[in-house]
TrEMBL record:
It is a multi-pass membrane protein. The chain crosses the membrane at residues 25-46, 66-90, 167-184, 190-210, 247-268, 274-293, 305-324, 330-356, 377-394, 400-419. CDD domains: MFS_MJ1317_like. Residues 31-422 form the Major facilitator superfamily (MFS) profile domain. Keywords: Membrane, Transmembrane, Transmembrane helix. It is found in: Cell membrane. This is Sugar phosphate permease. It comes from the Bacteria. The keyword Transmembrane helix applies. It comes from Micromonospora krabiensis. One of its GO terms (molecular function) is transmembrane transporter activity. The keyword Transmembrane helix applies.
Length: 430
């Protein structure tokens, strides 16, 4: 329906399959469940650190809002370009599982690096960059494995289930962090060690249960043979295709609309004067909403179209920012803000990749997804720094109002950009 003016022969094979009807009965494939399990365990580890990091940096090390914005941006965006490298290597050598596994292992080792960094902000920034390097390397190969393990018409459901499992880990991670802090007397080092152990378990699960997935048949269209290695020229050629180029540009614009979880939770903590010990539970509220909504929203996206769902998700983000600057306070603010923030993630995280999947040829699927994620991550880095600067210069309330206005403007531009690629036919997917 949107974004694609190219034919579909280069997507999933359509050869007759006597077992296809039987497989459709299952919600998703076994490979998606295995990848979801890996993400669940990894997110327990990652969210343990993410939940306490704003406290550690802002209250423990006394970082300014601008300095925190830089560190927060690094946490997601500084190694963004390596996403493309990881995607290209995975496509060229057709070893998506191997590349993803290296990314998961790198992030696990980085958790121990936080122990060695001590109170040095530059060292902490470097360790965070290594952790995000691991995430950058693994994200595109993992998502490509999901698309190659799922029929095109069910991608929204598959990503919804995967992100739901992922969000279970995000839900549990802060709870584990709080439990560790209560058990050992608010020791951040204990959180980092526990996080490493959990991350190592995720690597073991990936090695044992996730299967490498390759296209079942060569493509029938003109172009490089299916058994030849992917070249850099093909990657540049992908960006010359109008649907893919618009998608990457739109992803970058949408990344500029996101200020980051740490800022959202710090604003809530300041407004409601929450105890620092219970600060990590704010992430639990977001993850709970994400957990409950991810799969239903993925199914809805397959039925009504993925672009309207993504647009609705960013609209929920804009309303969240307005709530943080509005007159509502107390429990109504906490419940509404966290529910809408979880809705934003449920409607955008996996659905945006599902939107991209059918636009991208199988041969360059991992690289194309990496380009989309890189555009978002680089824009997020810029957005985090700018929001930290705005907070420091104008105060948190003015800064969040500007962020809400930015979401509205970017959403309008993005809708106009992607609508140009809309097909006149009545298909609902992508």
């Amino acid at each position: 329906m949107y974004l694609s003016t190219v034919t579909r022969p280069e997507t999933e094979p359509v050869a007759p399959d006597p077992g296809r009807r039987r497989r459709r009965v299952a919600l998703v494939s076994g490979n998606v469940v295995a990848l979801g399990t890996v993400s669940l365990i990894t997110d327990i580890s990652a969210e343990m650190v993410t939940a306490v990091l704003p406290l550690y940096l802002v209250f423990g090390l006394q970082l300014s809002p601008l300095a925190f914005g830089v560190v927060d941006g690094v946490y997601t965006g500084a190694t963004a370009l390596l996403r493309v490298v990881g995607g290209f290597v995975a496509d060229r050598f057709r070893r998506r599982k191997l590349v993803a596994g290296l990314g998961y292992a790198l992030s696990a080792v980085a958790k121990l690096g936080l122990l060695l960094a001590g109170r040095s902000v530059p060292a902490i920034g470097a360790v965070i960059a290594v952790d995000r390097l691991g995430k950058g390397i693994r994200s595109a190969p993992r998502d490509a494995l999901i698309t190659l393990s799922t029929p095109s018409e069910s991608l929204g459901r598959a990503f919804g289930v995967h992100r739901m499992m992922d969000s279970v880990g995000a839900f549990l991670g802060p709870l584990v962090a709080v439990g560790v802090l209560l058990a050992v007397g608010e020791s951040y080092d204990a959180v980092f060690v526990t996080s490493f152990c959990v991350a190592a378990l995720a690597v073991v699960v990936l090695v044992l249960f996730v299967r490498e997935q390759q296209p079942a048949t060569p493509t029938a269209t003109a172009g490089p043979a299916a058994d030849t290695a992917v070249s850099v020229r093909e990657v540049w050629g992908l960006l010359r295709e109008r649907p893919a180029r618009r998608l990457v540009l739109a992803a970058g614009l949408l990344g500029l609309a996101t200020i980051g979880d740490g800022f959202v939770y710090l604003l809530l903590q300041r407004r409601e004067d929450l105890s620092l010990l219970w600060f990590p539970l704010l992430a639990v509220g977001t993850s709970l909403a994400y957990l409950l909504l991810a799969t239903p929203i993925g199914i809805v996206a397959d039925r009504i179209g993925r672009l309207p769902v993504v647009v609705g998700g960013y609209a929920a983000l804009g309303v969240t920012y307005l709530l943080l600057a509005g007159p509502v306070g107390g429990w109504p603010l906490l419940v509404l803000a966290l529910a809408l923030y979880g809705l934003f993630y449920a409607a955008t995280d996996g659905v945006l990749v599902a939107l991209a999947g059918p636009v991208l040829p199988v041969r360059l699927r991992t690289t194309g997804i990496a380009l989309v994620q890189t555009a978002q991550a680089l824009a997020y880095l810029v957005s985090s720094v700018l929001f930290g600067l705005a907070w420091q210069a104008w105060g948190p309330q003015t800064a969040i109002r500007v962020a809400a206005a930015t979401v509205a403007g970017i959403l309008l531009v993005t809708m106009l950009l992607l609508a140009r690629g809309r097909r006149p036919a009545s298909r609902k997917v992508p």
